[in-house]
Amino acid sequence: MSRHARERLRENLAALPDPALRIEDPEPVVPVWSEALSRLTDSVRAGIRDRPARQGRGTPPDTAVPGSPPLPADTH
């Protein structure tokens, strides 16, 4: 593991609440959708929806992510 990766791991672990760090009976951390993640999700979905379909490849797979905001109605 690189030094940068170890530093990021330490930072991520330090940001967790104490109940999530318990060895026995840890409490899960509920993920939160940030505004930046919502924008990225919308951008990726739009890119997938708007790109031309490749012949013989069919439609792209479902891009729904559990807990994510719903897709906007198709305006085409």
Plain-language structure description:
With 76 residues, the chain is an all-alpha fold. It has a domain at 8-49. It has helices at residues 3-15, 18-21, 35-50. It is elongated. It starts with a helix and ends in a 26-residue tail after the last helix.
> Largest sheet, described in full?
none
What is the CA–CA distance across the termini?
47 Å
Please compute the radius of gyration using only Cα atoms.
19 Å
The average pLDDT score comes to 83
Low-confidence blocks of residues: none
Structural class: mainly alpha
String of helices and strands: HHH
Secondary structure: number of strands: 0
> Which descriptor suits the 3D outline?
elongated
> What is the helix tally?
3
Share of helical residues: 40-55%
Beta-strand portion reads under 5%
Helix/strand layout:
Elements: H1 3-15, H2 18-21, H3 35-50
Structure in a nutshell:
The chain is mainly α. Helices cover 43% and strands 0% of the residues.
Please give a handful of descriptors for the protein shown.
single chain, 76 residues, mainly alpha, 3 helices, 43% helix
